[in-house]
Write a structure and sequence with these properties.
By secondary structure, the protein is mostly helical. It has helices spanning 2-29, 34-42, 45-73, 80-97, 100-111, 119-147, 150-156, 160-183, 200-225, 232-249, 257-265, 271-310, and strands at residues 188-190, 193-195. The protein has 12 helices and 2 strands, in the order H-H-H-H-H-H-H-H-E-E-H-H-H-H. Strand 1 (188-190) and strand 2 (193-195) form a beta hairpin.
Length: 311
């Protein structure tokens, strides 16, 4: 009975969060002048829009490159070109559809099967990507908390000592993860799965990829804010929190949840500029890679069908 209720709650919770996020968005933005929003978008110009697209695609290329590191760590022999393409598709679909671990894992299991990659190795690769993101969050959030000024903490209503303590604990967590990898045996077995623990060098690669992913994503949003943009460090802090909130919500693409968090964390930013940035971010960061991923997927299906017909 308890388990059934919990499953029902987990299914309903993303919908409830979406409704709440929608209400908050309406409350914050329903008085925004659409002409001002349109004007903010016009101010991007072709150059700023093109840069936003390039930065967005760079995020997915970095994610795909990190997966190639994960594949080799797991002992999977997948050609680089195939691995980059399949990883791009997996991240483009998973980031937009939500439930990244399940969606991405299913896509990887299907696309890497012909290269002899077992389900255990697919699970390792998917977990590696998730941990990379978490390490990037710890590294950036910890650094931002440690170096934030007393004025920033005053605006947040948080004691500077408490904020810096939390930031320090985040960096301690990174150190503990690296130490555990250094001291662990060559192979670790968990149930039926056996894997190599990531050594400190590989941990550093994970942190760098995770942090670069978040910084590039924040740069897309910062770019779209144009003249309304705050200091990049302030925007990065809000972005990291909003992205994590969107992922934890279970709502596909964090739709509504991400925007709600950004609105609450950036009260000083012009609402029309923020609304324009939200639209551009959804278009450039989510929909453009998704369309490219679907195009790659369609070409793969056509090639497979042609090969089957030829045989």
């Amino acid at each position: 009975m308890v388990r059934r209720s919990l499953k029902t709650l987990l299914r309903v919770l993303p919908l409830l969060l979406l409704v709440v996020a929608g209400w908050v968005l309406w409350r914050e933005l329903h008085k925004t002048d659409l002409n001002q929003v349109r004007h903010s978008m016009v101010l991007w110009g072709p150059g700023r829009a093109a840069m936003a697209v390039v930065l967005s695609l760079m995020v997915y290329v970095m994610l795909a490159a990190n997966e190639q590191v994960a594949l080799r760590w797991a002992g999977a022999q997948v050609p680089l070109r195939i691995g980059m393409r399949n990883a791009f598709i997996a991240f483009a679909l998973a980031n937009t559809l939500g439930f990244g671990f399940l969606v991405g894992g299913a896509l990887r299991a299907n696309s890497y099967r012909q290269w002899g990659v077992s389900l255990g190795k697919v699970a390792q690769v998917t977990a590696y990507g998730t941990i990379t993101f978490a390490l990037g969050v710890l590294a950036l959030a910890g650094g931002l908390l440690l170096h934030a000024s007393d004025t920033v903490y005053g605006q947040l209503g948080v004691e500077p000592f408490v904020g810096r303590l939390v930031g320090g604990l985040m960096w301690v967590g990174l150190a503990l993860y690296a130490t555990a990898g250094a001291l662990a045996p060559d192979r670790i077995r968990i149930f039926a799965f056996e894997f190599k623990p990531p050594r400190p060098g590989l941990t550093l690669v994970q942190i760098l990829f995770g942090a670069a992913d978040l910084i590039a994503g924040a740069a897309v949003f910062w770019l779209l804010l144009g003249r309304h943009a705050p200091r990049f460090a302030d925007l990065l802090s809000a972005y990291v929190i909003a992205i994590v909130a969107g992922l934890l919500s279970g709502v596909p693409g964090g739709a509504g949840v991400f925007e709600t968090a950004m609105l609450q964390l950036l009260p000083q930013i012009d609402r029309a500029g923020l609304a324009a940035a939200f639209l551009g971010f959804r278009l450039f960061y989510y929909l453009t890679p998704l369309l490219i991923g679907l195009l790659f997927l369609a070409v793969m299906k056509l090639q497979a069908a042609h090969k089957t017909a030829s045989d």
